[in-house]
């Protein structure tokens, strides 16, 4: 059985604010639980490799606690692979977890974009949640088109970015960038669970959508069997 590749950020600060960030723990743990419980092995990659900085560190959440206390997976997320160490042929899915850090180091990572394009064009699935879709904005397919062009997509919205007061801090607005790339952008109100799947691309709006993204990816995997 092919594996699932989780992408997490290496970036640990929100611009020049001095505020810490990283990958959002629940956006890793909730899809991880869905896919891991279904028997899939999950590997981790980050732009720089090594220990990924964590944000949203809430161990009152039972799923976060389950992930954090799993010795194998705690080791994996603290010893992530570099993109150069990934063989795209090993994976049925690439999933980009969010957390604000993703806004600084996902979009322009050419190696990760190439890995995702290879997985997708081998009939694989691309998933992302919240700020994770920053990793999708510059993925180009072999026909020269952007991956998101013409597909239904959703991400952390401009309104949500405004609600957390970071519209002037992030390097770009994810919703606006997706529309610019030709995506058919969908969204719900603030902090609502919203997930869309279109042509093997699964995207979720915010942390509240993370588990549903995992479930939608699992559904696609199950349908392919």
Short description:
The protein has eight helices and ten strands.
Describe this structure in words.
The chain is of the alpha/beta class. It is built from 8 helices and 10 strands. The strands form 3 sheets. A 6-stranded mixed beta sheet has the order 3-1-5-6-10-9, sandwiched between helices. Strands 2-4 form a two-stranded parallel ribbon. The protein has a two-stranded parallel ribbon with strand order 7-8. α1 packs across α2 and α1 runs parallel beside α8. The longest helix has 15 residues, at 210-224. The termini are close together.
Topology:
Elements: E1 3-7, E2 23-24, H1 25-37, E3 42-45, E4 54-55, H2 62-68, H3 71-78, E5 91-96, H4 102-105, H5 110-121, E6 125-129, E7 152-153, H6 158-163, H7 174-180, E8 184-185, E9 195-198, E10 201-204, H8 210-224
Parallel strand pairs: 1-3, 1-5, 2-4, 5-6, 6-10, 7-8
Antiparallel strand pairs: 9-10
Helix pairs in contact: 1-2, 1-8
Mind summarizing the main beta sheet?
6 strands, mixed
* Unreliable sequence segments: none
Amino- and carboxy-terminal Cα gap: 10 Å
Number of distinct beta strands: 10
Structural class: alpha/beta
Q: Supply Rg.
A: 16 Å
What are the secondary-structure elements, in order, as H or E? EEHEEHHEHHEEHHEEEH
Q: What number is the mean pLDDT?
A: 98
Q: Compute the number of helices.
A: 8
Quote the beta fraction. 15-25%
Task: Output the strand order for the largest sheet.
Answer: 3-1-5-6-10-9
């Amino acid at each position: 059985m092919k594996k699932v590749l989780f992408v997490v950020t290496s970036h640990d600060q929100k611009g020049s604010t001095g505020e810490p960030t990283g990958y959002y723990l629940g956006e890793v743990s909730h899809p991880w639980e869905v896919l891991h419980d279904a028997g899939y092995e999950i590997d981790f990659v980050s732009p720089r490799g090594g220990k990924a900085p964590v944000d949203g560190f809430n161990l009152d959440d039972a799923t976060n606690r389950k992930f954090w206390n799993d010795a194998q997976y705690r080791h994996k997320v603290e010893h992530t692979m570099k993109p150069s160490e990934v063989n795209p042929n090993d994976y049925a899915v690439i999933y980009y977890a969010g957390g604000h850090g993703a806004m600084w180091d996902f979009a322009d990572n050419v190696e990760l974009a190439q890995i995702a394009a290879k997985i997708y064009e081998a009939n694989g699935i691309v998933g992302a949640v919240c700020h994770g879709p920053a990793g999708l904005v510059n993925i180009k397919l072999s026909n020269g088109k952007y991956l998101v062009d013409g597909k239904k997509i959703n991400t952390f919205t401009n309104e949500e970015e405004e609600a957390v007061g970071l519209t002037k801090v992030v390097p770009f607005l994810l919703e606006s960038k997706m529309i610019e790339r030709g995506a058919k952008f969908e969204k719900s109100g603030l902090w609502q669970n919203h997930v869309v799947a279109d042509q093997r691309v699964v995207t979720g709006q915010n942390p509240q959508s993370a588990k549903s993204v995992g479930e939608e990816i699992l559904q696609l995997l199950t349908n392919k069997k």
